[in-house]
Amino acid sequence: MSFLRLLLRPVYPIYQWKLLHEVRKTRIPEHIAIIMDGNRRYAQKLKIPPHYGHKFGSITAEKLLEWCLELGVKNLTVYAFSTENLSRSEEERESLFELMKVKLEELKRDPRIHKNEVKVRIIGELELLPEDLQIMAREVEKVTARYNKFRLNIAIAYGGRQEILSSIRKIAHLVKEGKLTPEKIDSEIISKYFYETDRCYSRVDLLIRTGGEQRLSNFLPWQANGSESVVHFCDIYWPEFRKIDLLRAIRAYQERIRDLNRENELRHTEIGRYIHKNVSFQNLPET
Predict the structure, then answer these.
(1) What is the DSSP string of 217-241?
(2) Is the pLDDT of residue 266 over 80?
(3) I want to staple 77 with a disulfide (CB 3.0 to 4.6 A). Which of 33, 147, 211, 279 is the partner?
(4) What average pLDDT does this structure show over 6-10?
(5) Residue of 257, 215, 251, 242 whose CA lies nearest to 35
(6) Which structural domains are found in the chain, ordered by start?
(7) Contact of 81 with 100, CB cutoff 8 Å
(8) Which residues are catalytic?
């Protein structure tokens, strides 16, 4: 921890309360997505083995779920393991897979999941994962399938372009079988065949990346592409992510939405003035 953060620690509770009070006054994003980056660099900074960085990161992910439930976020998608991560060393992959299996087993029994009726979905190319991890993923999905108050999507062996390609292939088969005409294909149809079909999943309101990198790493490229999708980058490593950092990201989202609303209001006002000044209604033909 930096000297400045250590110095400011006593005022964090006050600042956090102020932020929480502020963001609750306006629109909370329905769908938050997180690229949990920086676990290995955090471990390197502490001079501990990499798998400890991932363990500390998993603890932060549990806290994130609690914070989102408290704030009333309806949909949370976390990037746990990308298809690119499959190129890591066998030792690191096995350590990560074992941690995922343990955490999914804990998630299946977690009273917070059942009390808050959290539906858990594992999204990605699961056939690329070890069989025991696939089984555990299906089990946690099964025990939470009836819930619908909150959705937690865990992206494992996920690639955004692969998700879009997978959807297009399914649609192509429907067209080939005569069950769908090309004219009927639109954005809703494409979203319908993603890994998760919930309406809220098809659009990300706020995407956060920790770790200091300013790129999306093939994470939800379709869902996070839109005028109301806000991307927020944090310099801190994922295990260091705090509730304050989440609240700051939500505040940035809310400021962006306010700016968009002002721009739209200004545009409508200018259009109205132009019409009033340049268009005459007196000589319009009678109907």
Answers:
(1) TTSSTTTT-STT-EEEE-SS-GGG-
(2) no
(3) 33
(4) 66
(5) 215
(6) 3-278 (3.40.1180.10)
(7) yes
(8) 37, 85
